[in-house]
Amino acid sequence: MTSKAARIRALITAITAHLERRRAGSEGAEAVLARLAETDLSPQAFTNQPPRSSRHDATLTQAIEGVTAPELADMKAALIAAKDDLVWAEDEMKYYAADADLGEGYRRCNLHTLLIGPGACGFEHADFTLGLFMLGPRTLYRDHAHPAPETYINLSPTTGWRFGGGPWEDRPAGSILYNPPHAVHATRVYDQPFLSVFSWIRDIDQPCQVIAKNDWTAIEAALAQL
After folding, report:
1. For 108, how many CA atoms within 13 A lie in the half-sphere containing its CB?
2. Per-residue pLDDT tens over the stretch 12-59
3. Which of 162, 163, 191, 212 is the most buried (most CB within 10 A)?
4. Which neighbouring-strand residues pair with 46?
5. Which helix (H) or strand (E) is 3 found in, with range?
6. Alpha-carbon gap, residue 135 to 56, rounded angstroms
């Protein structure tokens, strides 16, 4: 295995170890671990895509530096080692209809990379993704839903989440969040960028749908004042 492949594989291993530690009672962790167990992560399966940075590299570096929870130290170290091997991309409405209203904050700063999935810079998979996702500070990721069941590992110290249009909940670093198929969810990012591990567990070729809520303007105005 090349050094590049080994670094990306080490990052997947660190993510897997965190899911194993948190798997008890976590449907999301169990689902991702089951898919990982079925995925070919051998040296021969490595895709070896050319790396690509982005215009958000400074924000990404800030987000990685903001991963301070001790239980995430191995994942942070593996990400630092592999960061410049990865293919970083903005959403560019890939997962949404062209007229979806995601808001200025999301359009201004979003970033992701696929470690596993279609066209991944690590290991190819047709119907399972594992990667990293970042949003810039003071961003509302507006309420949306998709057929794919989804798991997040929150790497940032504190991020706000809303499920099914209910009350906002702050979740700490290391927490695992699971969105069942078609479940409506939203994320709000405070004064530091948000970094996470995400996984779409299956049905990944189905698009997302933005679910309009009447409080978006007020939330975005409050975030802008942070």
Report:
1. 11
2. 999 999 999 999 999 999 999 999 999 999 999 999 999 999 999 999
3. 162
4. 123
5. helix 3-21
6. 10
Contact 87, 121 (CB under 8 A): yes
Bridge partners (DSSP) of residue 133 are 112, 196
| This prediction's pTM | 0.96
> 3-class DSSP state for residue 218?
helix
The radius of gyration of the chain's CA atoms, rounded to the nearest angstrom, is: 16
Predicted confidence band of residue 188 (pLDDT cuts 50, 70, 90): very high
Neighbours of 223 (CB within 10 A): 18
Return the closest-CA partner of residue 204 out of 105, 88, 112, 83.
112
Residue 188's identity, in one-letter code, is: R
Residue count (the chain): 226
Quick one: which of 75, 92, 63 has its CA closest to 20? Answer: 75
Domain 3-224 in this protein, CATH class:
mainly beta
3-state secondary structure of 97: coil
Residue ranges of the domains in the chain? 3-224
